[in-house]
Automatic annotation (TrEMBL):
Entry GO MF terms: ubiquitin protein ligase binding
Organism: Malus domestica
Keywords of the record: Isopeptide bond
InterPro entries, sorted: Cullin, Cullin-like_AB, Cullin_homology, Cullin_homology_sf, Cullin_N, Cullin_neddylation_domain, Cullin_repeat-like_dom_sf, WH-like_DNA-bd_sf
Keyword Nucleotide-binding: no
Gene this protein is translated from: MdCUL1B
Annotated SUPFAM superfamilies: Cullin homology domain, Cullin repeat-like, Winged helix' DNA-binding domain
A GO BP annotation: ubiquitin-dependent protein catabolic process
Chain ranges of the Cullin family profile domain: 350-580
Name of the protein in its database record: Cullin 1-like protein B
Length: 705
């Protein structure tokens, strides 16, 4: 042994000499790990080995053997795994192979950890300077290339087989499976590629196939309740497997895979079953409505159909609410099934109209069922939840607003708390914009009552002002309430005076607002002096104005009535029919027929009588459906225009199909816009110079500021 010139006291260690000693220590380590009779390393042996490596790496060139030791370290490990580890694993099969693999992997990790400590100088100085893989990474790479890649398929198949055995109720060695899974994870050296590609993907596919077969067999025996109980138990067990031996990152993927295989077939059958039940209910309701009079057909439809549909929805939702499974697949299936009813006309009535009519029936003191306050709240909750299935929410809102206006103005028995409650529920479900006008209507009535109180105080404080009759006025805000047809009715003198008095009061209160009188919404109480007795008649303003004409004239022709009241032909027919052809014949019509014609003449029926002292004479109902639909279509055109302009203002240039798609996306929470309507509005905006087509590409639009 020569002396290193760089150190007076350190002997020079040649490569072969040093490696011979290191190899002897390596051989002793292998014998210890193999369980052969061999004494443990003494501290002197350990320090001698460490010092030998240190000295060989710190000698001056050409005697610095850092690179050679690094290469020999790799070669020694490759030789060990090839000649010792791989043969011992290959000669065994099944669980014994897994046990041997886990044993060899555990011993191998001990070996590379012990050697890395002895070769620590390489890891601390030589490897970082040369940007080489660490000693630990070199060791794992050797095992991966020489052992793992040759046995991982058999290991995976065996582990998946054990998992399948556990699924059918057999006991397995969970600790063994966990150790094998740890090998798949550890071999990736901090990355999950090996685990995910070599094991997890195959395990998920196999689990999917297993539960697909289970779902098919269960569906032959059970439907929702029992099926869901079994599915819930399966999901619990799969989560338990993840917690005991699979990697935690697999839980979400495994649960989603199991849910997909179990729930997709059930959801499809559920969709078919519910669709059939809904279709049957629709057919039954149509048959029931067809046997009723036309005046009651809509009411029968909403009572029979909506009630049954909600009960059906509750029944199927109860299946999923009673268990812990909350899966979007079932809700999607229910939505698609209930779309049959929610977005299809039934006997000419849209589901939006039927649902609005149903709400009105419930809000009128519990409807025909006379529900309690608690039951009304529960039913309103169900109605609002069911509203999510309806695409044309704007149509429902308009029908509901029309009916809400009637309840607020003409039904003093309507419960204002329930009205506010359902508006709050709809606001939470559909947003503040959906209910803003309805909430404004409720607020308007409170302000109107305050306004009436101020008017009464004004009359008390102004003795010279006398309206002549008891007079109540309700001032409404135009933007909140539905649109009503206005008519410049020629009021009788008795009514003109009170109107002028209120105008004087209101003009003193505010000069910035204009009053438009909606006589079609007014009511009045008139004392009819008949031969047998006086009867109080509760009539509309139109009816009252017409009856007051007979105070000065005994007989009036149809044309004279039109001239004196300035009525339209349609309004005159409704009013005259209600007073001369309906239940209460206050007027005598000549000729005595059931229809009104321009050649008719009318006179007051002094011989009319009734057992009641006070009677209400309603006007014939007006079919408002067509008018509501027209109003909604008009509002939709405005909404489409606004959406297109918003999109183009932000994008400046956009292709036709993309513009249509974004427009549909913006409006889908209100209604499902028709593609043809969007195209029509685009053409209209081009004509009005909001947009223009690109001269070279006709499918490209540009925004004009």
């Amino acid at each position: 042994m020569s002396v290193d010139s760089g150190s007076q006291f350190r002997p020079l260690i040649e490569l072969d000499q040093g490696w011979e000693y290191i190899s002897s220590m390596f051989a002793k380590l292998k014998r210890i790990l193999e369980g052969l009779p061999e004494p443990q390393f003494s501290s002197v042996e350990y320090m001698t080995l460490y010092t030998t490596v240190y000295n060989m790496c710190t000698q001056k060139p050409p005697h610095n053997y850092s690179q050679q030791l690094y290469d020999k370290y790799r070669a020694a490990l490759e030789d060990y795994v090839t000649t010792t580890v791989l043969p011992s694993v290959n000669e065994k099969h099944g669980e014994l192979m897994l046990q041997e693999l886990v044993k060899r992997w555990t011993n191998y990790k001990i070996m590379i950890r012990w050697l890395s400590n002895c070769f620590n100088f390489l890891d601390r100085f030589f490897i970082p300077r040369r940007s080489l893989p660490s000693l630990n990474d070199v060791g794992i790479t050797c095992f991966r290339d020489s052992v793992y890649r040759k046995v991982q398929v058999n290991a995976r198949v065996t582990v998946i087989g054990l998992i399948d055995s556990e699924r059918v109720g057999e006991q397995i060695d969970r600790a063994l499976v966990k150790n094998v899974i740890d090998l798949f994870v550890g071999i990736g050296m901090g990355r999950m590629d090996a685990y995910e590609e070599d094991f997890e993907a195959h395990m998920l596919r196999h689990a999917g196939e297993y539960y697909s077969r289970k779902a098919a067999s269960w569906l032959l025996e059970d439907f929702c309740p029992d099926f869901l109980v079994k599915a819930e138990e399966c999901l619990r067990r799969e989560r338990d497997r993840v917690s005991h031996y699979l990697h935690s990152s697999s839980e979400l993927k495994l649960v989603e895979k199991v849910q997909h295989e179990l729930f997709e077939p059930l959801a499809e059958i559920l969709k078919q079953k519910v669709s059939f039940e809904v279709k049957s209910l629709v057919q039954q309701a149509e048959y029931t409505a067809s046997n009723e009079t036309s005046d009651r057909s809509s009411g029968m439809l909403e009572q029979v159909l909506v009630t049954n549909i909600i009960e059906l929805h509750d029944k199927h939702m109860a299946y999923f609410n009673d268990c812990s499974i909350k899966n979007h697949v079932f809700h999607k299936a229910l939505r698609e099934a209930f779309d049959v009813f929610c977005n299809k006309a039934v006997s000419g009535y849209s589901s939006a109209q039927l649902l609005a009519t149903f709400c009105e029936n419930i809000l009128k003191k519990g409807g025909s069922q006379k529900l309690s306050d608690e039951a009304i709240e529960v039913m309103l909750d169900k109605v609002v939840k069911f509203l999510t299935y309806i695409s044309d929410k704007d149509l429902f809102a308009e029908f509901y607003r029309k009916k809400l206006a009637r309840r607020l103005l003409f039904d003093p028995s309507a419960d204002k708390e329930h009205e506010k409650s359902i508006l709050t529920k709809m606001k939470q479900q559909c947003g503040g914009q959906f209910t803003s006008k309805m909430e404004g209507m409720v607020t308007d009535l409170t302000l109107a009552r305050e306004n009436q109180t101020s008017f009464e105080e004004y009359l008390c404080n102004s003795p010279n002002v006398d309206p002549g009759i008891d007079f109540t006025i309700t001032v409404l805000t135009t933007g909140f309430w539905p649109s009503y047809k206005t008519c410049d009715l020629s009021l009788p003198a008795e009514m003109v005076k009170c109107v002028e008095v209120f105008k004087g009061f209101y003009e003193r209160k505010t000069k910035c607002r204009k009053i438009t009188w909606i006589y079609s919404l007014g009511t009045c109480n008139i004392i009819g002096k008949f031969e047998l007795k006086e009867i109080e008649l509760v009539v509309s303003t139109y009816q009252g104005a017409l009856l007051l004409l007979f105070n000065s004239m005994d007989r009036l022709s149809y044309s004279e009535i039109l001239s004196k009241l300035n009525l339209t032909h349609e309004a005159a027919i409704r009013v005259l029919h209600s007073l001369s052809c309906a239940k209460y014949k206050i007027l005598i019509k000549e000729p005595d027929t059931k229809t009104i014609s321009p050649n008719d003449s009318f006179e007051f029926n002094y011989k009319f009588t009734d057992r009641m002292r006070r009677i209400k004479i309603p006007l014939p109902p007006v079919e408002e459906r067509k008018e509501v639909i027209q109003d909604v279509e008009k509002e939709r055109r405005y909404a489409i225009d606004a959406a297109i302009v918003r999109i183009m203002k932000s994008r400046k240039v956009l292709e036709h199909q993309q513009l249509v798609t974004e427009c549909v996306e913006q409006l889908r929470h209100k209604f499902k816009p028709d593609i043809r309507a969007i195209k029509k509005q685009i053409e209209g905006l081009i004509i009005r110079d909001y947009l223009e087509r690109d001269k070279e590409d006709r499918n490209l639009f540009k925004y004009l500021a």
